[in-house]
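Sample pair:
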Amino acid sequence: MPMHLVQPGVRELRVRESIQARPRLFLTFAGVDLALARPVAAQLRGAGGGIVLDYAVPSEPFAAQRSALIRASLALRLKRCAATVCLFGAETLEDDWVRWTLAASKQLRHPLIGAPFAGAASGGVADLLASIGAEIVPLRGEAIAQRLARRPVLQRTEPLTAEGLASTLRLMKHPLR
């Protein structure tokens, strides 16, 4: 049926279902590397395969009182993702949020992929990632997309429940500043 004949609301539902059916990747990287991560995220979005990205750069210190709320929110977001990609540089191991995200992803049994930023002396990070089962690939959107295509990423999309939505809304009520 042509889209102009579809009832209003049905088209939006189809678009939403289409987006939800795409594999979702969680990118983790040190906050100091945000400027380096943005072009990689753009490459991944343009690499094909309908990849949807999620990432967060918390400004709150990891040990702050409200960081438990951020971790809970990130845990919910990670559950909706099918794989985790660690973009790494020299300071990646110094970032508590990255280390927490890797541990949470490992606990969820996500496929882990590591990709080094260009020119970064990051051998220790690559070794650590390899030791926890991450596959190291070149930092190119198409290389990451090809890696995911070789071993299909399992969909971790769970149906939306009232409990999950209520939990998310409770987290959103609390200011994170």
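The chain is about 45% helix and 10% strand.
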